[in-house]
């Protein structure tokens, strides 16, 4: 499949912000960014605001990074697929993204078999 | 996983298996254009300069990206594909005005040809096409 990098500029709150998406492919005639978001254990993940360290500044920064990226991708790409091993991450960030007005995403969940 | 299995799993439509020249197939809500690349600097740097040249930005929403497809005309002139979505009209103006200020040429795809300034056109079959 012809995956490739794409440099982009997106308008967020009236300002141009740039980025590079590492894996972009055309699906259903839409420029689609694919992102992997794996967590070892959702209960202790920094991406989980209810984890023990979930409200620490570095955890909040990581949670904000997830949202900022989704907002930028929403502006620049036609759709985004988040590939994750965690149904909890998909549920949590699905709600966060929707509440922020991000609509063009899908989560694909593939549990890790240990 | 095969492409077919992945298409079924995602349910989002056909996954492109071979790249096509951007602009030869319509994409809903997205417009394509080509920007001359004189090779004086990395295209990514020039792209950023072009997009930021008009400030504040004309478009109200959306984004623009490099399509990583380069067309070399029979006379050796090079054009790079970009595409934009959202406020299409605004992005078109942003790019046209930026290109004019930076002395860059713009081109578009019309059927099987690349058209420069609505005057000169070259058949794609006579051009070099490189995907990154």
Radius of gyration of chain B: 16 Å
**What is the fold named in CATH at topology level of chain B?**
Alpha-Beta Plaits
What is the CATH class name of chain B? Alpha Beta
- Helical segment tally of chain B? 3
Tell me the greatest interface: A-B, 31 and 41 residues
Distance between the termini of chain B: 24 Å
Integer-rounded radius of gyration of chain A: 14 Å
**Share in β-strands of chain B:** 25-35%
Helix/strand-derived category of chain A reads alpha/beta
Number of E-type strands of chain A:
5
Instruction: Report the strand count of chain B.
Output: 7
The level of helicity of chain A is 25-40%
Question: Could you outline the blueprint of secondary structure elements for this entry?
Answer:
The complex is a heterodimer of chains A (114) and B (132).
Chain A: E1 4-12, E2 15-27, E3 30-37, H1 57-76, E4 79-84, H2 87-99, E5 105-109
Parallel strand pairs in A: 3-4, 4-5
Antiparallel strand pairs in A: 1-2, 2-3
Chain B: H1 3-10, E1 30-36, H2 43-52, E2 62-72, E3 78-86, H3 88-101, E4 106-110, E5 113-116, E6 120-123, E7 128-131
Antiparallel strand pairs in B: 1-3, 1-4, 2-3, 2-7, 4-5, 5-6
Helix pairs in contact in B: 2-3
């Amino acid at each position: 499949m012809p995956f490739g990098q794409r440099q982009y500029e997106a308008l967020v709150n009236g300002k141009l912000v740039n980025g590079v998406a590492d894996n972009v492919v055309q699906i259903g005639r839409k420029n689609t960014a694919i992102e992997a978001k794996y967590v070892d254990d959702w209960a202790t993940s920094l991406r989980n605001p209810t984890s023990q360290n979930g409200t620490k500044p570095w955890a909040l920064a990581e949670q904000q990074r997830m949202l900022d990226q989704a907002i930028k991708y929403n502006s620049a790409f036609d759709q985004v697929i988040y590939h994750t091993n965690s149904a909890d991450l998909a549920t949590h960030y699905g709600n966060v993204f929707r509440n922020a007005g991000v609509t063009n995403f899908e989560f694909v969940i593939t549990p890790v078999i240990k | 996983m095969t492409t077919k299995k992945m298409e079924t799993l995602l349910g989002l439509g056909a996954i492109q298996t071979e790249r096509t020249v951007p602009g030869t197939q319509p994409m809903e809500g997205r417009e394509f254009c080509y920007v001359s690349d004189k090779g004086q600097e990395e295209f990514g740097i020039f792209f950023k300069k072009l997009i930021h040249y008009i400030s504040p930005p004309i478009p109200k929403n959306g984004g623009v990206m490099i399509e990583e497809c380069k067309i070399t005309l029979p006379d050796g002139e090079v054009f790079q594909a970009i595409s934009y979505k959202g406020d299409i009209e605004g992005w078109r103006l942003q790019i046209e005005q930026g290109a004019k200020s930076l002395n860059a040429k713009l081109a578009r795809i019309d059927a099987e040809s690349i058209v420069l300034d609505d005057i000169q056109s070259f058949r794609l079959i006579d051009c070099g096409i490189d995907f990154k």
